[in-house]
Structures are given as structure tokens and as C-alpha cells.
Amino acid sequence: MLAAPTLRILLVDDHELIRAGLKQVLHAGFGNITVGEAKNAEEAMSLLTQQAWDLAITDITMPGRSGLDLLLEFKNLRPEMPVLVLSVLSEDEVAMRVLKSGAAGFVHKETSGDELVKAVRKVIAGGKYISTSFAEKLALRVTSPQTDEPHKKLSDREYVVMTMLASGTTLTQIGKILSLSIKTISTYRSRIMQKMRLENNAELTRYALKHRLVE
After folding, report:
1. What Å distances lie between residue 31 and 23, 87, 156, 197, CA to CA?
2. Where among 114, 141, 168 does a domain terminate?
3. Mean pLDDT of 22-47
4. What is the pLDDT of residues 74-123, one digit of tens each?
5. What strands lie across the sheet with 83-87, from one edge to the other?
6. Nearest to residue 64, comparing CAs of 155, 131, 153, 160?
7. Among 35, 79, 119, 173, which residue's CB has the most CB atoms within a 10 Å radius?
8. Sequence-ordered list of residues with C-beta below 8 angstroms from that of 147, at least 6 positions apart, any chain
9. Does the global pTM surpass 0.85?
10. Owning domain of residue 62
């Protein structure tokens, strides 16, 4: 009888203890697996090009490029690889955006280990994962009128720049991280402020903290 192929999972999180905990949960749930670890987007992309992975699990908020930006790169380079997004940010604010950007599922960091294993099994099998509570909220949205909040009008790239600005990252730093000119980042900032009807970075930071868009 042939042995089942080893599951290959790429973990992306800037906290070593979080990665260690995830590995423990995944080993308990799946037995012998191969785990790659990256603490930022650069390390993740390097590992992605070195070998094939069955699944990537990435955080949203990390130093440098965000998990959302990394998700877009993952889907561009390995469209067949499911990506599970893991975050402490509000499921209401983040889940729909990452799903629209190509994620196979969203798991909150307060989720139990058993639920994480369930999510991994589902997306590995080709399905999509969201929590039961979020599924209920989606069902309510279908029948209830919605008043979209300003940040939901942002494109994915604008959303990434917005979270960086709200976290105190300068235009120059953002330009270097995203490999874009300061002029381009300034244009993104102007669009963000216009769409969200904000005047300055202080207002943007207060808005992002209030809506749990940044940690």
C-alpha cells in the first residue's frame, strides 16, 4: 500500500511563537507534514520559488508588505495553491476582502486548533472556508440593505497602502516596500483620502484603529 503524500504547508507570520503554535496544531492534525516558515513577504516569496506547496497560511499584518499584498503575489505566481488567511483583525472587515482577492478562506487567530485543522482540510480539498458566524452575517447581508463604509470602496492596492499609512509607515518607506515611486504612492494616498473623506494621516489612523483595520 502506497503511503499518503506528505502535506507541504508554507507558514507566513512575523511572530515565531505563532508559527510554533501553528506547526504544533498542524502536526497534531495531519501527522507527518513538511512545513516552511517565513517571517515576512520576502522570505515567503523565496520559499515559494524554491519548491511546490500544497497550501499557504499567511497573516495579514506583517512588517513590510502586508499579507494582502502577499496574497495577490501568491495567486499571480501559484494560482492553483490555496491560501488561508489568518489574522487577529476583525473577520467582518477582512474576510470578504481576502476572499475577493483569491484566498481560499479566513481564520481568526482566536479560532481553536480543531477549527484550523478543519479549515485546512476543506481548502486542501478544493473548498472555501469561513466561520459559521460569518456565513450567517453574509446571509443577513443578502436580505438587509447595506451602507458600505468608506474603506470598502478602496481597491486592494489602495487598501494595502492605507493600512501602511495608518500604521505610521512613510511614503518613502511604502515606496521601497512595494517597489513603487513616491509619486505613485502619493497618488494612492490622495485617492484614499478622497474616497474615505479624510483630511490627514491622523484621521486615517483613528479610522483604521476604530474599525480594527490595523493592530
Report:
1. 11, 24, 36, 51
2. 141
3. 92
4. 988 999 999 999 887 766 667 878 888 889 999 888 889 999 999 999 99
5. 33-38, 7-12, 55-59, 83-87, 105-108
6. 160
7. 119
8. none
9. no
10. 7-141
